[in-house]
Automatic annotation (TrEMBL):
Keywords: Hydrolase, Magnesium. PANTHER family: N-ACYLNEURAMINATE-9-PHOSPHATASE. This is Hydrolase of the HAD superfamily. It holds the Pfam family Hydrolase. Transmembrane segments: none annotated. It comes from the Bacteria.
Length: 416
């Protein structure tokens, strides 16, 4: 079902209503080091109870309430995801005096009253407190400070956890968002992780941002999010490809069964190998096989175990005419993926063989990860070229190592 941003609007927003909304707009107190501030406000005026146009919440009227001003407040960023929309509802009597105040916090609506039951008004202005990084509203700072540990984790360890936020309101408009887009946004927000201050000294006058009707803000958001995704993608430094060996990296060589012509006709995967490949695919990593052996063997084994659909290219020594660590194997993989030697520093090679996989990768400037799961090959580097950049014991460790590599890339880029 298509979302209609006008579904609850009773009448077009008049200039007088917009002026009133601006005049009564709340002041927001942010933590002293809050990195993300609002830029737009979408206004809806309700003359009767109804469903919010911009949130799955009911706008209710109580005694003495003649109308309600809804403020849909827009941020480009929440510390956990790309874009933030929080709400304030001012409930007015027939003379436009504020009777009560509601506001949103984590998808729910709460009455904004101080512990003593009074409305949160300071110097004649409605004044609300915003959670660090997350922006949910409170009438007083006490409730935020009481969740200090939770708030700190959200701003540090959980930074970027949700990638691009996509809810029912925008799911069709943002259907183009890819797994790589989500990953780029996560890495971007991880570089903005911070230790939140719980001194709410940053006073932000909401009336000073851009005010418009909710339908107009909806269209702005639909255009703005792809724009921000493009900006982040252009500015981010991500792994451009993951090259995978096969034997004792994906496939357990000890289980290989050969036919009379020397082709592998049966073999089992290393525990966790398929799950690792599927996890990397979900994260939007482009993967290619770079393996020594015969083409038909890999078609049989990797096809049987469901690995091949996740591979963007298969570089096999029989087809290339050389074995690793010959640079032609790795160059063929880069070429098949539309990459060049200049991209080598953002390409990862994962393999079990120090001489073939690690030395070959290091010579071309690829990021090398040695998987030490098997003891069938040498476990000691013969020289400096065989020293891997990273070591994992099992396939299950790979996703977090790749995430770490991208965090280092993002950090180094930020420092440049």
């Amino acid at each position: 079902m298509n979302y209609d941003p006008r579904r609850s609007v009773r009448a077009p927003l008049s200039s007088s209503d917009l002026s009133l909304a601006r005049r009564l707009a709340p002041v927001i107190r942010f933590a002293a080091n809050e990195p993300f501030l609002p830029s737009h406000v979408g206004v809806t005026v309700f003359d009767a109870p109804g469903t919010s146009s911009s949130a799955p919440l009911e706008v209710t009227f109580g005694p003495g309430v003649a109308r309600v001003i809804e403020y849909a407040i827009w941020w480009d960023w929440d510390i956990g995801h790309l874009y933030e929309l929080e709400h304030v509802w001012l409930k007015l009597d027939g003379k436009d005096n504020i009777v009560s105040i509601d506001a949103s916090a984590h998808g729910r609506l709460f009455a904004m009253t101080r512990p003593d039951g009074s409305l949160p008004v300071e110097d004649g202005r409605v004044t609300l407190y915003s959670e660090p990084g997350k922006h949910a509203f409170h009438a007083a700072p006490d409730a935020i400070i009481a969740k200090k540990r939770e708030m700190t984790a959200a701003c540090r360890e959980l930074a970027g956890i949700d990638g691009v936020l996509i809810n029912e309101m925008f799911e069709q408009r943002f259907s183009h968002v890819t797994a790589e887009n989500h990953r780029a946004v996560r890495r971007h927000l991880e570089t903005h992780a911070f230790e939140p201050s719980f001194e709410f000294s940053q006073r932000f006058d909401l009336s000073e941002v851009h005010f418009l009707s909710w339908p107009d803000l909806y269209e702005y958001i639909a255009a703005r999010v792809p724009e921000v995704i493009g900006e982040v993608g252009a500015d981010s430094k991500l792994i451009k490809a993951v090259l995978l060996d096969s034997g004792d990296t994906l496939v357990d060589e000890g289980t290989e069964v050969f036919d009379g012509e020397g082709y592998v006709i049966e073999a089992e995967l290393i525990p966790g190998a398929r799950e690792m490949v599927e996890a990397l695919a979900r994260e939007g990593y482009r993967m290619a096989l770079v393996a020594d052996g015969r083409v038909r063997s890999f078609e049989t084994i990797l096809g049987r175990h469901g690995i091949r659909p996740h591979l963007c290219a298969e570089i096999i020594s029989e087809a290339v005419g050389c074995d690793k660590p010959d640079p032609r194997m790795f160059a063929a993989a880069l070429d098949a993926l539309g990459l060049s030697a200049e991209d080598a520093g953002q390409v990862v090679m994962i393999g079990n063989h120090l001489t073939r996989d690690i030395k070959g990768a290091n010579r071309l400037g690829l990021i090398s990860i040695w998987q030490s799961w098997s003891s069938r090959r040498s476990r000691l580097p013969a020289d400096g070229e065989e020293v891997p950049d990273y070591t994992v014991r099992t396939p299950g460790e790979v996703p977090e190592v790749l995430a770490h590599i991208e965090r280092v890339m993002a950090r180094d880029k930020k420092l440049d």
